[in-house]
Amino acid sequence: MVVIVGALIVLVSVLVGFSMAGGQIGALIHLSEFVTIGGATLGALILMSPTKVIKDLLRGIIQTIKGSSFGKAACVDLFKLQYALARLVRQEGLLALDTHIMNPESSPLLKEHPKVSGNHHARDFLCDSLAMILDGTVESEQLGEWLEEEIAVVEREHHAASDALAKTADALPGFGIVAAVLGIVVTMQSIGGPVDEIGYKVGAALVGTFLGILAAYGFVAPLAARMQSLGDQEILFFRAMAAGVIAMNDGASPKDVVTRARRIIATDCRPTQAELKNMFT
Length: 281
What we know:
Elements: H1 2-20, H2 31-48, H3 51-66, H4 72-92, H5 98-102, H6 108-111, H7 114-117, H8 120-131, H9 140-189, H10 195-249, H11 254-262, H12 273-279
């Protein structure tokens, strides 16, 4: 929702400013310019991106528009789940986790925390991480290295998608110039025609440059930056899960497990001490 509001503010500001200067909105609408810039941009994106990156990019754009799945509510749900899991380990031992992590879809414990269990990426990472400590023989230092390697893979995939969008934003002004040059070529073919027709064609050519720059710096580049920011938030969420698993492997108390995980989370998503106290009373 925030993304849509921001995009509307950019668009309305440009159009209102253009109208205040005496321009007519219809002068900015030239289908040929949209086709040239849009088609070239899409083709370049497909050309430079593997299929997986394109799929991740589409999912990332949708998620960016919808909003983060790893905000404060998800973090609170994660801490409650970690507390419950740590208490289960403290009472019944590590093997008590087996039924929950082998069949997470049917685990009543996981179902009680839908913000985590409903996100299959987070759920799978948590279950895979807990599976590593079931036999109780892995050293926490080595476990930390393994989990960090898993997180690095997720991080690389996030960067690949947002970088593809950022490179697309960098290319858009160039495609706007291409559309403008093509418009000038069309104008030169009519150089002997009426002055008003030549003026119309020159204006249409300049619209190509305008659209390329506006799309790049007003929409696509900010969207890429926001996608990267939400990706970083997800990585912190995964690192908090990893910190909790390592704490369980160390035999930490349920409260200590949550405390270690809480330190990883960004301050805007981190519950206060008072909220934690109410959470576990």
